[in-house]
Amino acid sequence: MISCPECDGSVTLPDAPRLSEIVECGDCRSELEIVTVEPVLVALAPEIEEDWGE
């Protein structure tokens, strides 16, 4: 487990975390992206914006 960068709540990680994998904070429901695996660090996942066919 690690702490959420948004609310400092506990984030449960998968058994084998992978780079760029998205996990969710159990407290604030923020989507977090795994940015390094040794050691495991997470950051807020970027918002995917709709391009509306552009």
Automatic annotation (TrEMBL):
One Pfam family assigned to this protein is Zn_ribbon_LysW
Alphabetical list of InterPro entries matching this protein:
LysW
- Protein name, as recorded: Lysine biosynthesis protein LysW
